[in-house]
Design goal:
Number of strands: 14
Number of helices: 7
Strand order of the largest sheet: 4-5-7-9
Bound molecules: zinc ion
Largest sheet: 4 strands, mixed
Order of helices and strands: HHEEEEEEHEEEEEHEHEEHH
CATH architecture: 2-Layer Sandwich
CATH topology: Muramoyl-pentapeptide Carboxypeptidase, domain 2
Number of domains: 1
Radius of gyration: 19 Å
Distance between the termini: 14 Å
């Protein structure tokens, strides 16, 4: 039954999908779903293996934010994520007269995407561009992102992280709903060396990429008993030797000096989605 549904979904939705995916990658059952399911907001499963109900669409614009690349249909999230983005937008607008450029949230019912992310599956993740624009500035929603990091040299470009970006990171890291924020190791290293109080940097986690955008992840909500939180970041600000190893390895990778360790031959188990997600998929009418 499940296989049949997977097959049916992708045939029935193919003409719609062709208009919706600029990157032209094969769709999956979740990436062709057009609209949210149900009114009860719930995240089901983990950030990189799950789905959701009751998603809300982020408006194309609002005070302090513009949503980019809406043709991807990834502007859905749990109500608390939409609320968080609005709060952050209001904050940067009031404080700096700027607006955020918002990247991907989740698909209408979450689930696996056909390109670009392994997480963003349960409506609690959002990518936000590192560069903000003036509140009255027009932006091409299909323009490219620009990096703020020189990866080979291990430093932040243009003399440092803009104040409004630093403040957006601070607001996010100290927000009670935020679990963690992924940033490039060079971004974190810069903040480690320039902030007087580094305790808030605990929520900033070094990860590859994330030099053009930062990725905010919210905690599971109390109304989602099947939502799986990640373990919280380890105690301390994380401004330590392991962070500097990330910076060094990134530089070695982009300059061709990196020597990869031999890969383990252990096969990864295929992911099995929560049963509830399969049930939701089966309820979809194609
Ligand atoms: Zn992301």
């Amino acid at each position: 039954m499940r296989k049949l549904i997977m097959a049916l979904c992708c045939v029935g939705a193919s003409s719609w999908a062709q208009n919706y995916q600029p990157e032209n990658k094969p769709n999956n059952a979740w990436s062709v779903i057009k609209s949210p399911s149900g009114s009860f907001a719930e995240s089901i499963g983990s950030y990189a293996n799950g789905c959701m109900t009751g998603a809300v669409a982020l408006p194309p614009t609002g005070e302090g934010f513009v949503d980019m690349r809406r043709n991807r249909n990834r502007f859905y999230g749990q109500p608390k994520l939409i609320e968080f983005i609005k709060q952050l937008g209001y904050y940067v607008s009031e404080r700096h007269g700027k607006k955020l450029l918002i990247g991907d949230l989740s698909q209408p019912m979450g689930g696996r995407m056909n390109f670009g992310h392994s997480s963003h599956q349960i409506g609690l993740d959002v990518d936000i561009w590192m560069q903000l624009i003036f509140a009255n500035e027009q932006v091409d929603p299909y323009r490219d992102m620009h990096t703020i990091v020189d990866k080979a040299g291990g430093f932040v470009l243009n003399g440092g992280i803009p104040k409004e970006t630093r403040d957006a990171l601070y607001f996010s890291a100290t927000h009670p709903d935020v679990a963690r924020i992924f940033v490039n190791p060079v971004v974190k290293e810069y903040l480690c060396s320039t902030e007087t109080d580094t305790s808030w940097l605990r929520a900033l986690r070094a990860w590859w990429g994330h030099d053009e955008h930062f990725h905010v992840r919210l905690k599971c909500d109390a109304n989602s008993p099947l939502c799986k939180n990640q373990a919280p970041p380890p105690p301390g600000d994380g401004c330590d030797g392991s962070l500097y190893n990330w910076v060094q390895e990134q530089s070695d990778r982009v300059t061709g000096r990196f020597v990869p360790k031999p890969k383990s031959k252990k096969k990864r188990k295929p992911k099995v989605m929560p049963e509830m997600c399969y049930q939701l998929l089966e309820q979809q009418s194609w």
